[in-house]
């Protein structure tokens, strides 16, 4: 599997337009991986929205990742919260949210395909969530971890620093939800280079 250097994380509360329209613009701008995070929706509504997002990504060979194992259809890639139990039946791809060396080590033992590491910088999406790790924190924690996606306050101008610190890519929520055309700038910052999943 090729894990893109940019993963768009959804949050419909930050969108000025319907989420499907925002994701469609992000995909049209080059995004190829979306983490569907909106966990507060009732299950039927969430399933319907996931289907709509999948229909946007499938024509371009994109990847839709279900936030959390609960309600994920069999065979769906999932991204687990830090304390969420690992599914009894392993999905085809599994990521996990991490914030510390302990959580990263646990994700590595589980065989996670990627992790998000946050917050790298102070973030408007989750004010007060932290403390921010900074690039030095990313550099210290990424060693020996599954492929790391830097998350939290990462702007296009921060991407190169995150990659230089050892992150394999970035996960972005607020900036792209508010302006999905920014995907072009994020992709330019990563030089469009894919990351190959570790064996």
From TrEMBL:
Keywords assigned by UniProt? Thiamine biosynthesis
Protein name per its UniProtKB record: Thiamine phosphate synthase
Q: Where are the transmembrane segments?
A: none
What is any one of the record's Gene Ontology cellular component terms? cytoplasm
Q: Which Gene3D superfamilies match?
A: Aldolase class I (3.20.20.70)
Q: Which Gene Ontology MF annotations are present?
A: thiamine-phosphate diphosphorylase activity
Tell me the GO BP annotations in alphabetical order.
Answer: thiamine biosynthetic process
UniProt cross-references to PANTHER family, sorted A to Z: THIAMINE-PHOSPHATE PYROPHOSPHORYLASE (PTHR20857), THIAMINE-PHOSPHATE SYNTHASE (PTHR20857:SF15)
Pathway involvement?
Answer: Cofactor biosynthesis; thiamine diphosphate biosynthesis
Residue limits of the Thiamine phosphate synthase/TenI domain? 6-174
Pfam families with a match to the protein in the record: TMP-TENI
Checking InterPro entries in the record gives: Aldolase_TIM, ThiamineP_synth_sf, ThiamineP_synth_TenI
Biological function: Condenses 4-methyl-5-(beta-hydroxyethyl)thiazole monophosphate (THZ-P) and 2-methyl-4-amino-5-hydroxymethyl pyrimidine pyrophosphate (HMP-PP) to form thiamine monophosphate (TMP).
Organism (species): Blastococcus saxobsidens
